[in-house]
Amino acid sequence: MQGRSNTLPEFKGYTVDVRLREFRKMILGKTPEFISFDSPQGQTLWAEFQKAKERKVRYTGNNPWLQSFDYFVQDDAGSYYGVYIDHPGAIVGEDGTERRLLLESRFQMDIEQNHNERG
After folding, report:
1. Whether residue 113 is found in the same domain as residue 65
2. Which of 11, 28, 61, 111 has its CA 20 to 30 A from that of 38?
3. What is the DSSP letter of 27?
4. 110 shares a domain with 60
5. What is the tens place of the pLDDT at every residue in 51-93?
6. d(C-alpha 114, C-alpha 42), whole Å
């Protein structure tokens, strides 16, 4: 396939194998370490890995509903999620601090046309 790398991504010293659903760390002279995505440690690493790959953007358009989000993240597929941080009365994420909402395509286009990178 053109445009795809044969190199697996690395995160916090682990090789990330999505196909096998595991993190691997192999150091010469040490026992190899394998962490399943389904284990508690694997779930934590997977969540951190996913968050590290996201691109945060800030909306600068005029839509009041979109302005109500604290910021947006864009995943590898290019989809935008609106993020509320510690929003009163919101259904929060597993970490208790944020809620994400996958936006409909019409809002996705609005964000794509009206955003600034957030540092």
Report:
1. yes
2. 28
3. -
4. yes
5. 777 677 777 778 887 887 777 777 666 777 777 665 544 444 5
6. 36
CA 107 to chain centre: 19
Structural domains counted in the chain: 2
Instruction: Report CA-CA distances (Å) from 46 to 7, 9, 11, 35, 102.
Output: 18, 12, 9, 10, 19
Instruction: Say if 1 falls within a structural domain.
Output: no
Residue 21 DSSP symbol:
T
Total count of residues recorded for the chain: 119
Q: Three-state DSSP class for 28? A: coil
Q: Which helix (H) or strand (E) holds 60?
A: none
* Domain hosting residue 109, numbered range: 54-117
